[in-house]
Amino acid sequence: xxxxxxxxxxxxxxxxxxxxxxxxxxxxxxxxxxxxxxxxxxxxxxxxxxxxxxxxxxxxxxxxxxxxxxxxxxxxxxxxxxxxxxxxxxxxxxxxxxxxxxxxxxxxxxxxxxxxxxxxxxxxxxxxxxxxxxxxxxxxxxxxxxxxxxxxxxxxxxxxxxxxxxxxxxxxxxxxxxxxxxxxxxxxxxxxxxxxxxxxxxxxxxxxxxxxxxxxxxxxxxxxxxxxxxxxxxxxxxxxxxxxxxxxxxxxxxxxxxxxxxxxxxxxxx
Length: 270
Known about the structure:
This protein has helices spanning 2-32, 42-96, 101-124, 131-145, 152-180, 185-199, 209-233, 245-252, 266-269.
């Protein structure tokens, strides 16, 4: 529920901010500039300028929105693939057999628990990946490298588990790059400047009820679009936080049995 409240509050703030920019620029332009007479073609010039600015502004928003949404979906898919890779190693260790089964499964369970309980919040605060999770992954990988297969079955399984373990590391690095990325001023400056410039040409229209209503629609929708771009920019932080559901499902299953009882949070076991 807290995440929903944060999303609604942030979205409302973006809408209010966009409305403030639109009406601030509109009334400032009306105070500074002369709206002109009906016959001097001021309205035509304002319309032409507004259309051209709107085309460029819309293109910028569309490109950034599509990029952020694609990155968001990519992280979600990578999370699922990483959970599958972890599950494969966890189950293949049983198929391999021997004394390595329990240590590998415990290390994997501890790794997943650390990602869910510690690393996800660190990524949300742009603090990078958890060193503890890296250590736990490295323990798993070292155990896999020390395997001495004696049969074709064990050779196949050992190679497969090593490949899956390296793919886990690759997904982790992608996750870190996404959390550390961001466009910052490179996007927000032209986006906000474009919103201001789009509002100025409307100064030729008197602030009637209809015109104010139309400007409100324009400002509110601009705020909504900017809010969603902001929400998708960091999948690990509110308001667009992507929960590690795939990892939590692993802990709710057999993998959770490899953890000490104290390591399981209440939300995972329910």
